[in-house]
Amino acid sequence: MAAPVSMGELLRSEQLEDPLYKDEGLCVLGIFGKSALQPSSGKESLINTLADKHVFPLFGPEGDADIPGGGSLIRAYYNQESRVLYLVLTTVCDNRQLLRACEALGSGLGHAEAHDFWKAAEKQRCLHLLYLFSLCHILLLVHPTCSFDVTYDRLFRALDALRQKALPLLRAAIKDCPVSKEWKLNCRPCPPRLLFVFQMNGALKVSGGAGAGAAAGGDAPGGNPEKPKKHSPRRRLQHTLEDQIYRIFRKSRVLTNQSINCLFTVPANQAFVYVVPGPEEDPVGALLGQLRGHCTLRDSEPGAVLTGPRRYTQLRQSARQPSFTVEGSSLAGAGGQLVDCTLKEFLWQHVELVLAKKGFDDSVGRNPQPSHFELPTYSKWAQVAGRLHQVMLDSQDEGSAELALKVQGQLKVLEGFLDSDAKFSESRCQKALPLAHSAYQSNLPHNYTTTVHKNQLAQALRVYSQHARGVAFQRYALQLHDDCYKFWSNGHQLCEERSLTDQHCVHKFHLLPKTGEKPEMDRNPPILYHNSRGRSTSSCNCGRKQVPREDPFDIKAANYDFYQMLEEKCCGKLERIHFPVFQPSTPDPDPEPEGEEAAGPPEAPAEGSGDGEQLKEEEATGHTPGDSTSLSLALSLGQSADSLGPYGDGAEGQEKRPSLAERQPSTVEYLLGMLHSGCPEGLLPRFSSWSLVKLGPAKAYSCHSGLDQPGFLPGSTFLLPWDIVIRCRPEEEMGLAEPLDAAPSSWPAPNKALAGKRAPTAGLGRGRRGRDDVARAFVGFEYEDGRGRRFISSGPDKVVKVLGPGGPKESATRALNSDMPLYFHSPTQGRGLKPHYAQLARLFIVVPDAPLEIVLAPQVQPGPPPCPIFHPEQREVLLPPDGFWVLRFPYAYATERGPCYPPKDSQQLPSFRVLRGALRANTTSPPPQ
Question: Where is this region: Disordered (predicted)?
Answer without folding.
Answer: 214-237, 581-662, 740-768
